[in-house]
Amino acid sequence: MTETQTTEEAVSTARPSLLEARDLHVEFSSRGRRARAVDGVNLSIGAGEIVALVGESGCGKTTLARTLLGLERPTSGEVRYGGAALDYRSKALKAYRRQVQLVLQDPTGSLNPRHTVYEAVAEGPRIHGLPDEQEVVAEALSRAGLRPPERFFLRYPHELSGGQRQRVVIAGALALNPKVLIADEPVASLDASVRGEILALMLKLRADLGLSALVVTHDLGLAWNIADRVAVMYLGRIVESGPVEQVLTAPRHPYTQALMSVLPESPERVVLTGEPPDPTRIPGGCRFHARCQVLASGRAAEAGVDGKCRSEPLSVLPAVPGPQAACHYAELTG
Predict the structure, then answer these.
(1) Does the pLDDT value for residue 222 go beyond 80?
(2) How far is CA 195 from CA 58, 178, 198, 225, in A?
């Protein structure tokens, strides 16, 4: 099956989505070489749904998130919101960014130390010319769990705890009343004791406001606790996706199995060998084959798919809600 056919299948079989990537490719020039940071991705996020995008550093997660936000333009393919292709003209992008907001992983870096909490949260409403600024800021802080909000208006970031700073960042996003949050490692810089509070807040926002979210993370434990669905990304492509319980309790792709093996409850540790992902040098065949523990152990040869693993590329996965994996061995063994 060709990649074009796969994309058409993705469009026809995916459930109605709020935010969607269709056959998305994003390329950069790197020291005279072409880096395929996002190399054919279909992904959908439904209304009120939380999707976790997981994978190790360098796999293309952040580039995909930035492209969904309209901060990067795709080389080919498209981003769709509410059924319409994203319009990159400045006025249309400004309107789009009211609906789709970014929550960064480092609240210390994303908050201006010279601005009070009030000024930080009011920045978005001022850019978009929203009325009743003080009321908007107070409601956003309150929804983010900073109550009473007036107590925080004149505080500076250095006067807050790490968890409170992350709540201010979330309040800044909520002030524009978005429909989708894209959260890039939202708890990575926080102490373990505070992570649960921020995750609980995100789930409450989904319950209270019907918010959708794409949570970008390398932490499968976080995905388990917050997501409805999970998409596992490797070297620019989603290699496995599906409902979080199915993917994380019975992972089919060897890469997902390796990621899962680092969790404390995992019975067996998988140590990946070979070079880490390099988007300027994507290998032939399965893009994971050079590091694959199933191929290295001889199990792929026993199943008669080792030649395919080394030489036959896999189709781009469609944006369907059910479980799926781009793996020759998984296709054969079920």
Answers:
(1) yes
(2) 24, 23, 5, 11
What secondary structure does DSSP assign to 175-217, as a single string? TT--SEEEEESTTTTS-HHHHHHHHHHHHHHHHHH--EEEEEE
Tens-place pLDDT, residues 149-202: 999 999 999 999 999 999 999 999 999 999 999 999 888 888 888 999 999 999
Instruction: Identify the CA nearest to 240 among candidates 284, 288, 207.
Output: 288
Question: What's 19's DSSP letter?
Answer: E
pTM: 0.92
Omega within 30 of 0 (cis) for the link into 277: no
Mean pLDDT calculated for residue range 84-108: 92
Evaluated on CA atoms 203, 207, 211, 214, the torsion sign reads positive
Compute the distance between CA of residue 1 and CA of residue 22 in angstroms, rounded to an integer. 17
Q: Domains in the chain and their CATH numbers?
A: 3-7+17-333 (3.40.50.300)
Q: Would you call 304 exposed, middle or buried from its count of C-beta atoms within 10 A (0-12, 13-18, 19+)? A: exposed
